[in-house]
Structure formats: structure tokens, C-alpha cells
């Protein structure tokens, strides 16, 4: 198991997959996690993609990362077809970034929703609570 695998899981019964990065998260980390999640054996198009960044030290995306982010969107387009992405971000600066990203990928047919708490994200998924992948 790679560190990236330890930060992703898919829950077919509830039709979602989650990426839960830790540490300082940068564009290459997002690419690796996106590919790990969408290539998981249990992933299916239409599942909800959840990014839970509550445990990340920071999410450092800068304008020069936009082409990389658009590229990963194109690379995962088929796997994410018909899905919504929920991003759990409890810090205001990260919430701002989520809203920016949502506008960036909307022309690609992607829907990104910001959740300001794990409870809000769980409600969107119809589950009692989000898992803590660090406990595995």
C-alpha cells in the first residue's frame, strides 16, 4: 500500500469514494490522489467524489497549477462522468479555493460542492459520518 492508497477509499454500497490527504497538499498530490481514487477497483462512474481536506496542513494551489488541474480533470473525465465532487473544507481560505475550482471546472461539465463540515458532507452523501482513513 502506498501513502496515496492510505489516503483514499471507495464505498460502493454508498456510491462514493473519498480522498483524505494529510500534510502539505500540492498539485502533484491532487493528481496522484485523483488517479488512485478513480482507478480503484470498486470505483464506478457516477459515484460521488469526496475530498476531505480537514486533515491537510495546507492545500497549496497557485495559478501556475491551473493547467495541471485541468489536465487531471480531462484524464479522469470518464471515471467521473455523472458524478459530483464534494470538498470538505473547514478553513475560509480553502473554502474560497474550492469555490474558485468549482468555477474553473464547470465548463468541463463538472459539479463541485463545498461542504464546511464533515457533518454537511455526510448529509450530502446520506451517511451517518465520514470515515477517518487515518485510523486504518
Topology, pairings included?
Elements: H1 3-6, E1 8-11, E2 16-19, E3 23-26, H2 27-38, E4 48-52, E5 56-60, H3 66-75, E6 84-88, H4 92-105, E7 111-115, H5 118-125
Parallel strand pairs: 2-4, 3-5, 4-6, 6-7
Antiparallel strand pairs: 1-2
Helix pairs in contact: 2-3
Features:
5-stranded mixed sheet; 35% helix; 136 residues; alpha/beta
Model description:
The chain is of the alpha/beta class and 136 residues long. Helix content is 35%, strand content 24%. It has helices at 3-6, 27-38, 66-75, 92-105, 118-125, and strands at 8-11, 16-19, 23-26, 48-52, 56-60, 84-88, 111-115. The strands form 2 sheets. It has a 5-stranded mixed β-sheet with strand order 1-2-4-6-7, sandwiched between helices. It has a two-stranded parallel ribbon with strand order 3-5. β1 and β2 (16-19) form a beta hairpin. The radius of gyration is 13 Å and the shape is globular. The N and C termini lie close together (12 Å). The model has no long low-confidence stretch (mean pLDDT 89).
The number of distinct helices, counting runs of at least 4 residues, comes to 5
First and last CA, distance: 12 Å
Strand order of the largest sheet: 1-2-4-6-7
Alpha carbon gyration radius? 13 Å
**Structural class from helices and strands?**
alpha/beta
Helix content: 25-40%
Give the strand tally.
7
Q: Kindly state the mean pLDDT as a whole number?
A: 89
